[in-house]
Design goal:
mainly alpha
């Protein structure tokens, strides 16, 4: 998949969140993509982290939460980041 294929990356992220058994792998991939130049990819990456928390009941709190909190004020993805943090609070034992 080409790095610039935004729609394919977003589709693959969501698919991985719902169908990949290795939640940590999905989490780590989504964290990498939080720095992608496309706001759509970053938005989907934040949502994917929330899906991982909800579906797998797991998140690496020490790694994920600070990365997400640093993006809360991003006007393009702040809402998705807030939703992901809500999912982490609701579906894992981690405090945010």
């Amino acid at each position: 998949m080409a790095a610039g294929d935004v729609a394919a990356i977003c589709t693959a992220l969501i698919s991985a969140a719902f169908h990949e058994d290795d939640g940590k792998w999905v989490q780590d991939w989504a964290l990498e993509l939080l720095a992608h130049p496309s706001a759509d990819v970053r938005h989907t990456a934040a949502l994917t982290v929330g899906h991982v928390a909800r579906i797998h009941r797991y998140i690496d709190h020490d790694l994920v939460v600070p990365r997400l909190q640093a993006l809360l004020d991003d006007p393009e993805i702040g809402g998705a980041v807030e939703n992901a943090l809500d999912d982490i609070r609701m579906f894992t034992d981690a405090e945010t």
